[in-house]
Structures are given as structure tokens and as C-alpha cells.
Amino acid sequence: MHQNPEKPKNPAFLRGGDDLGRNAGGALDLGWVAQVRVNLSATERRVASLPGRRSVKKDAQAAWLLKALTCIDLTTLSGDDTAGRVRRLCAKAAQPLTPALQEALGMGDRRLTTGAVCVYHRFVATAVEALAGTGIPVAAVSTGFPAGLVPHDVKLREIEASVADGAAEIDIVITREHVLTGNWQALYDEMRDFRAACGAAHVKAILATGELKTLRNVAQASLVCMMAGADFIKTSTGKEAVNATPAVTLTMIRTIRDYLDRTGYRVGYKPAGGIATTKDALIQQFLMKEELGRDWLEPDLFRIGASSLLADIERQLETHVTGAYSAFNRHPIG
């Protein structure tokens, strides 16, 4: 899908796929960025073939859904969020399935949790306190989420404040204007500053793909953010009209694969926005497995940003165990 006939000339990106741990990034290589191409018709054919070609049922489907559960960034990003809602969400993250259902699935001896809890900065300290002892990280959306149009120094202070409150992951939003005008240096500089402000906290770069107009823009923005040290690239804030489509996922994860091949750094992927059903989650998982391999089905490299998805996973798992339809109202978020 991406036609990159030459290796980048920057020595910092000639590591040969050595799996070097956390992505350190490197210098901006504009030649590499300019080489990126996306074949739209081929992308559309590839994602259209998935539902008919890839299908799992019964125990196999239950296993895939249990894996998806562990990769969810359980999220509340509403204007009416309260500390009480965040605490309930954290309790749900720590015990996403009832003990009876987990036992019936043969997982009674396993500790299942979601991958993280994602909240606004205001509730980071509340979530950290509620999750103490669980090992579940708190992710904070930052940098003027969702539009990202506040002053740059304010963005950096917001990151630093969330890290100080205990956030282990920071989901930043890029300035879309930099992508739409092709100002890759500005995007790179912005992302490098965000990475530095995060310190030891991992940084997920939200591209807001629904506002980037073309898949080539999506691929180029993904690449620049990885060059600047992003630990994850993420599709959307969830507030755009179009969010994590399969075509966007395919474009972004193939860019991750290109980046791995050239640098040795493994970068994670987080689809977010509009992933509300088990069918949505399974398509994302199938693409990850087929394009990047088994390692990218684990929460250190794959997260799903979602709120209502967990309820649908619970519903499907209960239906699998009992054979009876399970209604959504039996599975509150928290």
C-alpha cells in the first residue's frame, strides 16, 4: 500500500528492525514522508473482504472478545463527568466481568482487567486513587482535547500536570492545521515537545483522522508522529464526525509496520471513536493480527478507546454461556 522504494538516508532510521524497546524517534526525514503513498482502491478492497473472509464463532469468538476486553481503554470524556462516575468506571475496569460469568467461561483463576482508564485531567488523581493496587494505568487526554487549539505552552503545562497527578499515559491531540498545510516540521516539533513533557509517561498521538481529509495525510501524520517519538498512534478523539474506520486502521498499522521495518521500534495502535460493538472490535483485532502479528494483540501495543464496547462484550459472552439473549441494561458501564 505504501510505496517507499528507498531506505531513508538519515542514519538514525537505519537500524534494521532490531526491536529496540520504547520508540525514541529520530530526526525528521522529509524525504521519507514525501515518499508515502496510499492506494485507496486497494485499501477499500482489503477492508471490504474482512467480514466475509474472517469469521469466528462460539469458543473462538469468546476467546477473541476476552482478549479485546484486556485492551480496552475504558473511557469517560463527557462534560457531565463527576468523581463518582470516574470511581464507578475504575471499579468496572478492575472487575469487568462478574465472577459468575468469568467462572462459567473457564477463566475463574485469571485476573482480567481493562487495559487502562482514560479521563480528563481533572479526574486523573481520582482515578489513580481508585485504581491503587490494581496495576491499571490511568490515561489522561491532554493538549486542549479535543480541538487542540489552546496555546502551546498551555498544552505542555497540562501534560506536566497530568503526569504529576499520576497519569502513566498521555493521549495528546495534534494540531490538524500542520497536516492540512503540509507543515511537517511544525508537527514534528510539536510532537517532540509533547514527548519531552511526558517524561516516563507513554504518549499516544491522536491524529483526528476524520479531519485529515485523505488517507495519505493520515499515513504521513502517523509517520511524522512516530519519528518524533510517539509510543502509540491513535485515530480519533471520538468527537469527530468520522472516527476509527477499518480503512484508517489499515493505513495507520501499515505505516507502523513500515516504521518497524526501517527503525526497529515497535509503536502501538489505538483505534477510538465509534467502536461500540463486538463486530467492530473483532475487525480491528483481525487487521492487527494479519498486518502486524500476534504481538500487536496485547495491551502494550494495542488499545481500543471505548465506553460502551465493554457492555456489548459482556452481553455477547453471557449469551455464549447461557444460550439466551442478554440485554444491554444487564451490563452497566459502572
SSE class: alpha/beta
Distance between the termini: 41 Å
Gyration radius over CA: 19 Å
Number of helices: 14
CATH class: Alpha Beta
CATH superfamily: Aldolase class I
SSE blueprint:
Blueprint: H1 30-35, H2 40-48, H3 50-53, H4 58-70, E1 72-75, H5 83-94, H6 99-104, E2 116-119, H7 124-130, E3 138-141, H8 152-164, E4 169-173, H9 176-180, H10 184-198, E5 202-206, H11 215-227, E6 232-234, H12 246-263, E7 268-270, H13 278-292, E8 304-306, H14 309-322
Parallel strand pairs: 1-2, 1-8, 2-3, 3-4, 4-5, 5-6, 6-7
Helix pairs in contact: 2-12, 4-14, 8-10, 10-11, 11-12, 12-13
Structural summary, described in words:
The N and C termini lie far apart (41 Å). The chain has one domain (16-330): TIM Barrel (Alpha-Beta Barrel). The model is unreliable at 1-11 (pLDDT under 50). It has 334 residues and is an alpha/beta fold. It contains 14 helices and eight strands. It has an eight-stranded parallel sheet with strand order 7-6-5-4-3-2-1-8. It has helices at 30-35, 40-48, 50-53, 58-70, 83-94, 99-104, 124-130, 152-164, 176-180, 184-198, 215-227, 246-263, 278-292, 309-322; strands spanning 72-75, 116-119, 138-141, 169-173, 202-206, 232-234, 268-270, 304-306.
In short:
By secondary structure, the protein is an alpha/beta fold. The chain contains 14 helices and 8 strands.
Features:
334 residues, TIM Barrel, 14 helices, 8 strands, 45% helix, disordered N terminus
